[in-house]
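Entry 12.
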Amino acid sequence: MSLKEARAKRDEARRLLANGIDPAAAKRQAIIEATIGAATTFKLVADEYIEKMEREGKKAATIKKSRWFRDLLDRDIGHRPVSEITPHELLTAIRKVERKGHHETAQRLRSFAGRVFRYAIVTMRAQENPADLLRGALTAPQVKHHAAILEPELFGELLRAIEGYSGKPETLIALKIAPHVFVRPGELRKAEWHEFDLEGAVWRIPGEKMKMAQPHAVPLSSQVVELLGQLRALSNAGSYLFPAFHTTRRCMSENTLNSALRRLGYGGDEMTSHGFRAVASTLLNESGLWHPDAIERSLAHKDPDQVRAAYHRGAHWAERVRMMQWWSDHLEQLRDGAKIFTPVFRRA
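Predicted 3D structure (tokens):
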């Protein structure tokens, strides 16, 4: 240490003493803070936040996705003290994902980072959330709609094509049931027998299987109950209605129904398994027979008004039961002769 540096440190020590601060104690405290800061990296805080999510019972898919987001950020900021990461550093890390054209992933990555920084703030390890300053900095993703055949005549052709499917029997029945119940593909392929009350004609899907994490009940038409009887007769030993090809301990893969549609000659730009929901939503609303809320409840869409959502949770059940039977009858009409229902624009 040079004489000039030594004098500067002496003057700094005198200044601290004049302010009632022990220079030796201040040095020890600075070392402790630096050590803690270096140990409290973004990755460590993110791991702790994900562990908290697990204790709170978050869905396994949500936990898995959070770990994936953490890994995407790990190389750039994972080693950095969470309190020292700047908005520019975070933006640079996220833009590596954005430049690959994954705009929605980039938006969700910013959102995940923001939750980690907020957790760091409430646990006294950071003072600012750099993710908040990046709002509007990323390219907004374009909404992509799932391909669906919305013309009744053409949809009738699809239903007739499904009747001729020659693949695995469970896949055929899944294709037949999908347009009747119009749940999300993942909810259908993960269906288990204990969720069904065939005598009461209702399928109760637990919240952990639903996108919005809320239980959902599906009224079953007589046509669906009959299809389920056919499925039961196949005598698959397992809990899943639609087991995987090589084992009954897992459900069919997420690509099975879409692959079956491709086998029937329908490309990804024409029809998808998710498209059955769009068909039901469109044609039920166009019929004018059913209350929009009954249709939305059947689609398990979340009401943005939480108070209204709580009030309407059990509403429209009787109407939904009638609607599901009418819809199955209408599907049979389309399948058998492509008869077109003429909207009357009134409600039952």
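Annotation: The beta strands are 196-197, 202-205, 216-219. The mean pLDDT is 87.
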